[in-house]
Amino acid sequence: MTDDASTRPVSRRDLVRRGALGLAGVAAASQALRAAERGLPGSVSPHGAHEPGNAVGQGRVSDASIDPMVFLEQFDGGEVSRDAAGRTVREFHLTAVDRDIEVAPGVFYAAWTYNGQVPGPTLRATEGDLVRVHFRNRGTHAHTIHFHGIHAARMDGVFEVVHPGDNFVYEFEAKPFGLHLYHCHAVPLKKHIAKGLYGTFLVDPRTPRPAAREMVMVLNGFDTNFDGENEVYAVNTVPFAYHHEPIVVRRGELQRIYMINLLEFDLINSMHLHGNFFHVYRTGTKLAPDEFTDTLMFCQGERHILEFAYEETGRFMFHAHQSEFAELGWMGLLDVVERVIA
Amino acid sequence: MDGSPRRGRAGDRVSRIPTPVWALLPIVLLAVLGVALVRGGLLDVLRGGAPPVEALTFERVTLAPDLIRVELVNGGPDPVTVAQVMVDEAFWTFTSRAGTTIPRLGRTTIEIPYPWVEHEAHVVTVLTSTGLTFTHEIAVARATPTPDARYFGVFTLIGLYVGVIPVAIGLLWYPLLRRLERRWLHFVLALTAGLLIFLGADALHEALEAAERVAGAYQGVLLVLVGALGAVLLLQAAAGRRVGAEGPAGRRAVAWLIALGIGLHNLGEGLAIGAAYAVGEAALGAFLIVGFMVHNSTEGLGIVAPVANDRPGLATLAGLGALAGLPTIAGAWIGGLAYSATLATLFLSVGAGAIAQVVVALYRVVARDTRDRPVWTPLTAGGLLTGLLVMYGTGLLVAG
Fold this sequence. Notes:
By secondary structure, chain A is mainly beta. Chain A has one domain (68-337): Sandwich (Immunoglobulin-like). In chain A, strand 1 and strand 2 (88-104) form a beta hairpin. Helices cover 13% and strands 37% of the residues of chain A. In chain B, helix 7 (220-244) packs antiparallel against helix 8 (247-278) and helix 8 (247-278) runs antiparallel to helix 11. Chain B folds into two domains: 56-138, Immunoglobulin-like (Sandwich), CATH 2.60.40.10; 149-399. Chain B starts with a helix and ends with a helix.
């Protein structure tokens, strides 16, 4: 499909072209051509210069299966009850369904989803809770849910393939505390993840983290033409979502981002914050920060908790430091406003 | 055999129906069936829910300051909607003149305000509503010339140097040819045929190459066939009787034919030169100029060879030279202004067909002149081979 003129062998006509220029060179000796060459564009711009456009694409996404602003701060604690031993039990319902989602304005992708959304809902439990996930496969392919965490082999969502129309109940204790993920582990694995079957599984420590404004950011992308490369990059599915609608942040307020990289095809992803530095809690499994930086690298499946506060108001960008990803959708803005005392 | 009387009666009934009815009946039936297929929903059944097939072709990409203009042609069976445009792997804003949904065989122009960098390469990718991508590489970014007086001036000069001057120089062999013995004149005519065969093969090759870049529905390779065969037949029909005539009139007609064939070839050549120059795909080289002169001046020799003994006037010679050389200028103009792969394919194949026709005419000139003696002698065969080798050799000069 690529109209690749550069790989064509040199033909006689190519040579003719060069010859033509040679002749033009001779002609250049003449005053006439010299006068004329001054008129060749490239050296002058007599016609009204056009305003440079924007590297944010055209139009807005309206049918992405999630509202990025809502998804950002939406946590699903499940149906809570207690078992005989007094332990908290959290029950979740996840259903695999096929759905076309708009992954760039006007571009539709035949996604495989949990609960009709990409990413799937953000599941949240506390360390030690009993987690019970009722999984129903209403899609057209066999799927599973593979949770990251410490659990029994038969609850690992790898070998117990759930065929279309079938159900399965995953049950395990939420541990260790940290920022985890879940995704389909049916084969071919790459396809099942790239199609959209993934989400965040957050396990809070028994002693809660300090109060903060909390956000979930799933770094993802879409290979719309199935060539094994992403055409679209995003935070929470919608490219440039937080660029078009910046995330409002209060000055001085602690911000906590749960950031998970579920990008397929590209080996690494990254997060760069403008005008600030952030504390990194790698995989969120410790309460003390591991690092203080403004640029963080994520391997596939890698996730970290980021904490920061802004001392200045204004608009600050955050994006992948792979410029290509940034200009293909993984770019957003934080709009820091004066602290409002409620 | 006993069925023939019945056929006869049937024939009588058939003959009573007016002829136009028989001409139109199948067409009307086809139209009715076609409408029923599309309107009646039968098409959807036949497709069986298959996804649409998308095929976009970049017909022409032009650059203005801070602007990339892309002309897209839909050569596929289904409409295509352009949803997003990427330049160098970045989503970019754009406007489209004819809308973003392109019907089958339709076209649209997309304008991307992009700060492209002179002399660097850029990649434009169109992302359709189904997520497919179509990509075009701008090998060397350079502002596309706009059609003003200076532009025409530059391209006229290029055309003069590439087409007109070499041909005119070649015509200067005319006095020499007049002094040649008949058998050596045949050698030169055969040499001319060799030159033309080389040019024809080159035009055909280029036509087929351009055909690969033509939007699918326009059937580039078959366009070559139509263009080439069309040129042969048209020239045959237009000039056949005059070319077949005995004596000077016939030979002069052949000279004009050769000039026309070379002119058509040069039109295609000019087209490519103009297009290449417009997008900056060209480099300077003093040695190349010399090679080019030698290479193309042989065309002039070919034109005058048939009329060497006929004392054509200066006006005739000038006219022959103009017919062969001036199309280069027109080609350069068109190439720089409105290059399209479809146009290039058509022009080049017409050139190839015209040359084929000219070679046949040349053969007849020699055959008539040799009368009862064989056409193929060591001199004529050697002449043709020499023609090929001269073109090949001077082609190497251009390649330098």
